[in-house]
Structure formats: C-alpha cells, structure tokens
C-alpha cells in the first residue's frame, strides 16, 4: 500500500482560513516568477504587456474627493445671549389658586395726633386705607415641533421649544409688572421739568439725576436700602455717558451682576449707589418725546411692594394629539396672573416734561 503524501495530508488538515492564506502566498510567488520571466522577455524583445491595468490607474482616496462623506457632528443648541429680565424674580409672587379674585388692603395714611385740652376728648383721627383688587387674566403661547426631529437629530429641539415657551411667559409677566407699576395710584413721583427748548428726555441726565431719584423715595424720614431702579437699557447707557464738567471723567460707575445679566449696581462719584434691573418694557427716559405734560419712564422702589398673584402656576405641556395627522408635537404654555402695587409710595416714578 502506497504511503499517503504528507503534503496532501497537511492540506486536508488545514482549515479554510489557513488554506486561503497559503494559496495567496503561492500566488505571490508565482507572480514573482512571472515578473522575472516578463523582465527577461522585455530584455530580449523590448516589449512588455501590462495585464493588471487597474493597479496602474488606481489613485489614493482622500477626503477632498467628491462623494467621500465623513460623519457630521453636532454640538448642542445654544441659548440666546439676551436673557429674560429678572424683574419677575424680584417682586412678590402670591399663589392665588382657587380664588375668584385676590384683594390686598393698603394703609395710605396714619392717624394724626393732636394736643389734648384738659377735660375734653382728643380730636378724632383714623388711618386711611385703600383696596387693591387683582383679577385673573389668561396668557398663552403655542408652538409645534415635528416628530421627525426625534428620529433625525440627536439634539433635543423639543426641550428647547419648551424652554423658549417658558421664557415667553416670563417676558409676559415682566410686561404686566412694567405696565402696572407706573399706572398705580399708590405711587409717588419724581417730576423733572426741562427747558422749553428740550426735545427729548436725554437732557435730564446729569450728575445729580441718580441721587435725586434715590432720595425722592422713602418719604421725608427714610431712605430704603433695598430699593431697585427699574430702567430701560438705553437709560443705563445714558447714565454711562454722563461726564464731569472739569476732568470729563464718567460720573456714574456701572457694575453688572455676573450671575444675573439684567441686574447690577450703579453708583455716582459721591458714593451713593443702588441696584438696577433692566427691562425692555420700561419706557426709556432718554427717548421720551417731551411735551408740556408729564410722561412716565423709569421707576425706583422696593420690588416687594409689587405683588403678582398667579392662579395655578406656570404650565408648559407637550401633546401629540392635536396635530397627530401632521406628525407634529404641540408645545403649549399658559399662565393666569395679574400685577399691581400694594403699598403707598411703594415706588417713585420718574416723570419728565418741558417747560412752557
């Protein structure tokens, strides 16, 4: 019996991967031998035929070649640089859920004391009061987000639309406050009468404006250290532009709060200072078109003298039923609120006019 060929037996014992590798090696050796024969033929005849043409025309693939696509990265959704005013965070928030109306009694004047004549009763005197009534009013915002965004984008647009709705509701509350405070009958006033030739309220900005506003608040016997100046950013820039008459240096120093961009401290060179809060809903004094009648602008006072009752809280809901056929998510925000001043002389409102 003939002995089995060792090479054949080894080939049978190989697995598929090893066999493929061995055959590739044999082919490379064969190609090498063919290259030697081809070189000898070229030396003898001066001719050579390339059979593997693709190996000669194949170019390197680079990222600049049309059709080469790399992964697209996304970094997230950035919030706007312009924040919402912090006015709503400074005033007094009241939960009025379950009330048809909300009322606050304000003491407007104290009783007065008179001299007593022996044997007679003192002159009668009682304090006076005023009632402030808050009535619920509804405000809402609605927006839509496609469901397809959930499938196609790793960014959470749904959350950002929800956050944007919340900011929109906060802006509405700020607008309510900015309108309610100057309109209140409980306010005091700091009235500025400018020259008859003045055309805008910009003429009111001088080295004493801030101190006059601060000292006009708190009655005849007090200065409230917790008061805040609510003003338009245009007026803050107008304060920054006031210069001294001798060295022409800035009269006012403005120090923004790094944790709350809409607030900060403003002070004059005499050291008198106050906190400020910016709101685009406050009328700018520097932009007032002056007439012979007083017009209101910025106001100064303790923010807790303004109350904002809220019925049911600030609600933002996401629902997929309303626009189901269109494949849209509905983001709807709603708030029920009111705002008003609840303390006599709780704010001093800056008013300006030109002389006749």
CATH superfamily of the largest domain: Major capsid protein gp5
Q: What is the CATH domain class of the largest domain?
A: Alpha Beta
Measured distance between first and last alpha carbons: 137 Å
Tell me what portion of residues adopts beta-strand conformation. Answer: 25-35%
Radius of gyration: 40 Å
> Do you know the CATH architecture of the largest domain?
2-Layer Sandwich
Q: Biggest sheet: strands, sense, closure?
A: 7 strands, mixed
> Based on CA inertia axes, which overall geometry fits?
elongated
Strand order of the largest sheet: 5-15-10-6-9-8-7
**What low-confidence regions span 5 or more consecutive residues with pLDDT below 50?**
none
Q: What number of domains? A: 2
- The tally of beta strands, per DSSP, is 15
**Oligomeric state of shown chains:** single chain
SS class: alpha+beta
What is the ordering of alpha helices and beta strands?
A: HHHHEEEEHHEHEHEEEEEEEEE
Concise synopsis of the structure shown:
The protein is an alpha+beta fold. 26% of the residues lie in helices and 28% in strands.
Description:
The protein is an alpha+beta fold and 356 residues long. The chain has two domains: 6-57, no CATH class; 87-354, Major capsid protein gp5 (Major capsid protein gp5 fold). It is 26% helix and 28% strand. It has eight helices and 15 strands. The protein has helices spanning 6-13, 16-45, 54-57, 87-90, 148-152, 157-183, 209-215, 233-240; strands at residues 92-95, 102-109, 128-134, 137-146, 188-194, 228-231, 252-257, 260-268, 273-278, 295-301, 306-310, 315-319, 328-337, 340-341, 347-354. Strands 5-15-10-6-9-8-7 form a seven-stranded mixed beta sheet. β8 and β9 form a beta hairpin. The longest helix has 30 residues, at 16-45. The N and C termini lie far apart (137 Å). 24% of the residues are buried.
